[in-house]
UniProtKB/TrEMBL annotation:
A molecular function GO annotation: site-specific DNA-methyltransferase (cytosine-N4-specific) activity
Region described as Disordered: spans on this chain: 262-283
Domain DNA methylase N-4/N-6: 28-242
Membership in a protein family: Belongs to the N(4)/N(6)-methyltransferase family.
Signal peptide location: none
Name of this chain's protein: Type II methyltransferase
InterPro entries reported for this sequence: DNA_methylase_N4/N6 (IPR002941), DNA_methylase_N6_adenine_CS (IPR002052), RM_Methyltransferase (IPR001091), SAM-dependent_MTases_sf (IPR029063)
EC number of this enzyme: 2.1.1.113
Amino acid sequence: MRSFTTSHGIFYNGDCIKGAALIPDNTVDLIITDPPYGIEGDKLHRHYNRDESFVTDGYVEIPAEEYESFTRDWILQAERILRPGGSLYIVSGYTHLRHILNALYETSLEEVNHIIWRYNFGVFTSLKYVSSHYHILFYAKPGGKRTFNTECRFSLSEKDENGGSLNYQDREDVWIINREYKPGKVKNKNELPTALLSKIIQYSSNEGDLVCDLFLGGFSTAKTAIGLLRRATGFEISPVMYDAKIDEMMAVVPGFLLDTAQTPKEPSRKRTRKAWNPEETEQLRKRYNELNQTSLSQKEVNQQLQEEFDRGYWSIEKALKQTGIKPGR
Ligand SMILES: C[S@@+](CC[C@H](N)C(=O)[O-])C[C@H]1O[C@@H](n2cnc3c(N)ncnc32)[C@H](O)[C@@H]1O
């Protein structure tokens, strides 16, 4: 199979189902992929009303009647190449979602989250609602430690102007991320936004990890992964799309996204893990009762106790239970 190699990856021009044989079992840390939609993808851009000359030709679509077996075959390969604990993110529209879910159920892969990605430029309709979201299925291979960098983008102490946790908001399972509009630039018509890919790569991998995309398209996953100092690999069956990206990929500077990626503005505050002694537990009990006489909400009381005793919520709850108090949330 034809391939090219950069300092951070090897990329193949061919069918990912056959080509996956080139990747050994249990070696990939993270797979992010956006399989063909099975809905005449080569006409998709007309809905978006873009100037066709700016859209890379050569997208290879899967006939709807083959979609089910095609999906089963590539998902089995994804399961095989992922390391135990490795993560898989599949971006899918609604049309063939059931085939993807059925294929996943037949593997050992375990569901972690079902994310809704809401985007702009929904397909225009007049007699029904406009569809403006995709599904992102986040699964993991059992048997190893899954990477999830909880504070890679916002530390647990960062707040918005209303006191809400930015970390919590960033980890909610509805993501509002606009598609990129690059006027005048040659691009793949279904290219995933860098902001979306960065988010996944930051949470679910570490520098030096291997990120694979079985359906490279415009190579956006690979570019973002290398931009964040990960290694990358993958497949694109279309020679036209593959050839169109070789020069660009050879010129990608590893780490080019590190300066602009979302990172915590405040350092993460690691709570002490030390055990409670009886005096501290008694102090906690008194303080809990005191704070509960104030106008603070239960949530604010809990936060205050976490600060004062430098412990996480669960540790505080456990210690209070020992004194006979069952704190609310
Ligand atoms: C939805 S696009 C991927 C877009 C990509 N995520 C991006 O951001 O540019 C799906 C891609 O899979 C390619 N493809 C279709 N069948 C394939 C196969 N069996 N193996 C590898 N690539 C395939 C299509 O040509 C198309 O480029």
